[in-house]
Amino acid sequence: MLATKRALAKAHYRKWGVGFTKRAGGPWRDQIIKFQKQHGLKADGVYGPATHKKMIKYFDRYGAYLYNHTKIASGGSYGSLREHIVANAIFGYNHRSFIHYTQGPSRMYGVKHHVHPPSIPYWEDCSSFVTWCYYAAGAPDPNHLGYNGYGFTGTLGSHGVRTSNPRPGDLCFYGYYPYHHVTIYIGNGRVISHGSEIGPLLTVPRYRSDFSHFRSYLA
Q: What's the half-sphere exposure (Cβ side, CA atoms, 13 Å) at 124?
C-alpha cells in the first residue's frame, strides 16, 4: 500500500507524506477510484492487476522497491506501518556495502541526519539500525526517547512486550538484560542483523547461541 501511496502522490492524486503510515481505506480508496475513473478502469477502489498496470509508470525507485520486496518478506498482509519498517530493514540489507558498523558518536547517523530511503544511513550499530528502521517508517521510537539521538539495546529491551509469536517489525534480543545484541524480524523465519562491518545480514533468529526473546512495539 505504501508503494501505491507514493505512486498516487507522484501522479498528483494525494499529497506527499499525508497519511502514508495509515491503513488502507478512506481517502486512499477514494484516490484509487479517482485514478481508475480517469484511466478508463472499473472504479471499484480495488487495487488489482489492471490498476497496477496503469499505475506502475508512477512508481519511483523506493516505491518499486517496496512493491517488489515487502510481500516476499511478510509472507502475508499486515499493517502498513509494519510493512514500512520491514521495507527499511530490507533496504539496509540490499545496500549493506554502504552501511558501516560503529559504536562511536556516528552510530545514530540515520536518525540524527533524518535519513529516509532511498538515502542511506551510512553509520549504524545493531540498536541504532533497528531504531532507524522505525524512525524512517514514521513509527514511535521503540526506545521511548522521541528519537533524540540516543538509545541502545537496554532502552529497547525496557519497552515493548515479550512475544513468542513474532510479527514482521518485531525485535529479537540476545543475551541478558541490557542485552548484547538486537535484530529485526522481517517474517518467514528471518531477521536482519547489523552486528559487524559485513552487515546488515539476512539470517535466522537463532543464528547466535545467546538468543533470548522477541519483543513487539506495535499493535
A: 32
**Tally of CA atoms within 13 A in the half-sphere of 131 that contains its CB:** 32
Are the CB atoms for 110 and 121 separated by under 8 Å?
Answer: yes
Q: Which residues contact 148 (CB under 8 A, 6 or more apart)?
A: none
Question: How far is Cα 75 from Cα 95, in angstroms, rounded to an integer?
Answer: 22
Nearest CA to 190 out of 179, 198, 201 is that of: 201
Rounded CA gap, 150 and 112, in Å? 9
Distance of alpha carbon 171 from alpha carbon 167, whole angstroms: 9
Q: Is the dihedral of CA 148, 152, 153, 154 positive or negative?
A: negative
pTM reported for the whole predicted model: 0.68
What is residue 23's DSSP assignment?
P
pLDDT band at 147 (very low <50, low <70, confident <90, very high): very high
C-alpha cell at 71: 510481500
Say which DSSP state 97 is in.
Answer: G
Mean model confidence pLDDT for the chain = 86
Residue 94: Cβ-neighbour burial (10 angstroms; 0-12, 13-18, 19+): middle
DSSP secondary structure letters along 125-148: -HHHHHHHHHHHHTPPPTTSS-S-
DSSP reduced 3-state for 86: helix
- Hey, what's the cell of 172? 529479537
Query: Residue 136: which of 159, 122, 120 has the closest Cα?
Result: 120
Question: CA nearest 194: which of 110, 134, 124?
Answer: 124
